[in-house]
Input
Amino acid sequence: MTDTAHAQDQAGDRGPGSAPLGRGVRLPRTERRAQLLDAAQQVFAANGYHAAAMDEIADRAGVSKPVLYQHFPGKLDLYIALLESHVEHLVTAVQRALSSTTDNKQRVKNAVGAFFDFVNGDAGAFRMVFESDLRGEPSVQEAVDRATSASVDAITETITADAGLDEDKARLLAVGLVGMSQVSARFWLSQNSAMSQEEAVALTSTLAWRGIGAGFPLTARD
Output
């Protein structure tokens, strides 16, 4: 980092006309990076990748554009760093959900809940992971794939250990649970339903735990 850029970074240098998020505040490099990622999340969520501008991200963060480039060489680097942080957050949440109890029924509910929490959390985070418009970019696709594969790996390990299934069968069930959870969560959010998140999680996890036949028997009309 040059002396000028370092001084700008420490002082929170910024362009005119933006909200004073960082002016005059001396931040360690890790905190400045987190601030830049937060600003980038807001801009990417509002504009999408292609319409987002580094100038706007720098202005939103309250730093000069040279400072932004000292932390992230380009817009794609910034996007991938942000995407990786979201993937890590989701995977950690799923792993924590599985390790939080030895009750397998509750584990399923917790895992489903982790996906609903993620989708209903920070604005635009789940869209970057599950609906990215840059899937043609290999580095982006790799990060997106990891969100699913790491979650599947964690669930597969639990199923294999507790259900006595071989790895292929356990992995297929894990893929089903991950797919059901994230698609159901996205659908629930998109419908602006009066159904609460708690009720939606309970409904989805009941389907996953017991299956359609056992959990939702036919009525007596037949």
